[in-house]
Amino acid sequence: MLVIGCLLLGLSSAVLSYAADYPTAQVNTTGLAVTDTEVTVGQLHSATGTMAISETSPFRPNSRYRADHRSWRCPGRKIKIIVEDGASDWPTFAEKAKKLLVKDKVAAVMGCWTSASRKAVLPVFEKENGMLYYPTFYEGLEQSKNVIYTGQEATQQIIAGLDWMASQKKAKTFYLIGSDYIWPRTSNKIARKHIENVLKGTVVGEEYYALGHTDFGSLINKIKLKKPDVIYAIIVGGRMSRSTNSPRPPASRVTNGHS
């Protein structure tokens, strides 16, 4: 995160030399919270709700991100972090993003985890011309000048994983499961097309469950009946641990969720 914090400033040695001659107050025409001594950035993740299990690492007391941020410096400037809780609720993410950009005037925001939360805040960042650093992999099929996508997109992780299962495990049949929102559904659409058209395999089942769902007994029975070579699971959040700890049939399992 320190590296990201420094990168977002975009300060080359030439810029630093220029900044030394001209106070920030004279050259900062953006209105952002950047001064000669401090840069303010936002952090927007879920500290509460079903996605908290995935997104709370930066909030933990022993996290270096939280413990060291008061002493961070990017060439002479302290980094101030304003933390907001998206509460695992997409409208709340949009509301908090607007607050960070419009009220707090942050230079950038590190945040969102699910594609649904990213989609919710994207119109806000584009309208306010803010910068979002999205910290994890995603399904692709999106490009915005207001987002830095730091993780892999579909061809760099979904397809590669399926190719490995087919070549190394000789997998022919696949069961796709996921949480019911854009990331799992889009990812499984990409996966199904690759399985059927490229690997010449068969998708023997495809199931989706609402965020917060915890009872996977019927799903396990369906999987036992179909006997797939691979269970391709994109289940995210707090229920992920319950689904993966449930008794399951002897099949190779690939998890590709934000968990």
How does this structure look, described?
The model is unreliable at about 10-15, about 60-70 and about 240-245 (pLDDT under 50). The strands form 2 sheets. Strands 2-3-1-4-5-6 form a 6-stranded mixed beta sheet. A 4-stranded parallel beta sheet has the order 8-7-9-10, with helices on both faces. It has 2 domains: about 1-150, Response regulator (Rossmann fold), CATH 3.40.50.2300; about 155-255, Rossmann fold (3-Layer(aba) Sandwich), CATH 3.40.50.2300. The chain is built from 11 helices and 10 strands. It is an alpha/beta fold and about 260 residues long.
- Class from helix and strand fractions: alpha/beta
Rg for CA atoms: 21 Å
Q: Approximately how much beta-strand content do the residues carry?
A: 15-25%
Question: Major β-sheet, in short?
Answer: 6 strands, mixed
Unreliable spans: 11-16, 61-71, 240-244
- How far is it from the N-terminal to the C-terminal residue, by CA? 19 Å
Broad shape: elongated
Give the H and E element order. HHHEHHEEHEHEEHEHEHEHE
Rounded average pLDDT: 82
Query: CATH first level of the largest domain: which class?
Result: Alpha Beta
CATH fold-level assignment of the largest domain: Rossmann fold
Determine the fraction of residues in helical runs and give it as a percent range: 40-55%
In short:
This protein is an alpha/beta fold and 259 residues long. The protein is built from eleven helices and ten strands.
